[in-house]
Amino acid sequence: MAIEPLAYRMRPKTLDDVIGQQHLIGPHTPLYKMITQGHVPSILLYGEPGIGKTSIAYAIAGSSNLPFFALNATQSGKKDIEDIVVEVRLHGKVLLFLDEIHRFNKLQQDTLLPHVESGGIVLIGATTENPFHDVNPAIRSRCGEIAQLKRLTVEEMCTVLQRALTDRERGLGKYAIDIREEQLTMIATASNGDARKALTLLESVYYASDDVDNTTVISDRAIESLAKRIGVYGDQKGSHFYNLLSALQKSVRGSDIDAAMYYLAHLLESGDLVAVNRRLLVMAYEDVGIANPSVGAHVLAAVQAAERLGMPEARIPLANAVAMMCLNEKSNSAYKAVDAATRAIHEGKTGDIPLHLRDTHYAGATTLGHGGYQYPHDFPIGSFGGWVNQQYLPDELVGTQFYTPTSAGEEKRLAAIYERLQQFKRT
């Protein structure tokens, strides 16, 4: 068998060999038509590992007549770019695949940019990070398309695996292998949309299985055992990690407990317990809010327990916290109110603090006119405690309403009190 890994050997040679990503590179897309007609634009390919960025770059190279060069930004320097520029002088135009393009520093980018702009270098940049966050704007502006790739479906992954099993030249086609369709589905599902993982797992399972009468018989046990080792992608400093945090919060906000548990599990597998705890605590106050004020305290207790326990036990209190927030009433009225007040300040809607609210704990305060504050506790009002009708906002903002209550959970009761106090103000 060849020395190169199966995933490397099975890279598509042309655009027609690409499985998946049909929204980007399918026969009816503008990009496919441009490339097959000889016009290759500079593009940025963005997506998680193993979903086809490198494969598409090599397929584009195989479908064009341009001299092709591949670099990885983590290992390349200014000298490597200068070598490519020499090739530009020899050939007039070259196709450069630059993996991990977001790793390029300013000097490397400055060396590359004029040649991309002049068309001497047709750039295919690949990145696992959001290009709008992590790729220099000058690079982005010179790329005709920024393409976000999708994970392969289980069906597409099975097609990838079937092709590897039948390809006699590059794959496993020349070997007698007994593998059932449901076993292919097991491998495809375990790979979680990552074709590289799927092919690596298939190759590992092949080597780990028994030979019976000159036929390798794939066993479920080998698949299950090796599938546990392929890991979960989750760069703690990368875009995908923050996408997971965002998806968790939006699922909790939308009260979808199943989705929330999925994203919580993925985040915990990624390993950054601190970031997960911080986000859960924020959610308790941002999304549940005063619809149920006790949730904040419960989530804080869960977070503190998780910090003391560490993984894997930390998942237990955190799962409780997520479930509680998912199934509780929701309100964002309180933080929306402070945001509205902040906007007003930034817009210049400010004024002097009323004299009766100013500090009087020093000699001379009355000389400045400070004083006259009425102590609300001295004016009992039913079971509420105390309230007195006096001005609190600056003169310029009297009548401004920042808080808009919602009728959710505990806030329904608070909203009724708020409306009653507003009536008192008007009488």
UniProtKB/TrEMBL annotation:
Give the organism the record lists. Answer: Caryophanon tenue
Protein name, entry field: Recombinase RarA
Q: Which UniProt keywords apply?
A: ATP-binding, Nucleotide-binding
Show where the AAA+ ATPase domain sits.
39-151
GO biological processes: DNA synthesis involved in DNA repair; DNA-templated DNA replication
GO MF annotations in UniProt: ATP binding; ATP hydrolysis activity; DNA binding; enzyme activator activity; single-stranded DNA helicase activity
Which family is it part of? Belongs to the AAA ATPase family. RarA/MGS1/WRNIP1 subfamily.
Q: Which residues form a coiled coil?
A: none
